[in-house]
Amino acid sequence: MAEAERAILATIAWRTQHAQILADTVRTGIAPYEEKFLKFQTTGYSGDLGGLEPLYIVRTGLCNIKGLMNSMPSAEVADFLLFSKEVAHHRCDQLTRKTRQLIKMITVIDMAGFSLFGGDKRFYQALGDSSKKSAEYYPQLLGKTVMINTPGFFRAVWGAFAVFMPKSALEKTAVCPATGTGLATTPDATSCPFLQRWCGAGGTGRVPDFLGGTMPCPEQLKPRAECSNALQKVTVNARSSASIEVEVPAGGFTAAWEVLVEDYGVGMSAILFP
User: What is the pTM of this model?
Assistant: First the structure.
């Protein structure tokens, strides 16, 4: 009882302290620092499990974790990961009230294409910090984390990752046996128990194509280079320069740009040509 009381009081204090941020996040559906975070990460919602639990997907093989951590302070990454839980909580709360069942979110971690060297300790630390707070402030939000398309070196990655995570989150993690779901030669989603449940009565059309279904890939889960907010990547060697041309519509427009530097610093300038 004492621990439950402590957690409740801590949650009330946190929600009171961040009341305006939480209200804005629910109103807009956008968490703080989301725009910058999603320039490097391929994540988003895609359907639900049997018409109930929302499914949140992370395509780790398409994420640029090192670029993210080189462009955002760890505190901002942790804040985004935590405050984004408010969006998920709002979704689940609405479904709970509608169905009169306790609805929790399901996180799907797609590891297809993930490199052994693609991780970053700074990100794992930020994720661990936000997960520990989430376990306290949103104790009934996470129903299950499902790892799919796990590579042969998964145990090594998991060992480095798990030390930062709270025990409650690790206990809710499961590994789906399906691998190579995005390949044409692999059996469709109905061959995996978890994906079969995801299909439900709607069939494979409810599951994205990269997970063995037939649903076209949602915009937010496409490779970053194919998205409207894709970054233009330029490598500038020491003592050299590079140019990028951007067409600006004439008349009444304001040109703006953002430069994110992965390593070292650069000087820059802009020239307008009529």
Answer: 0.81
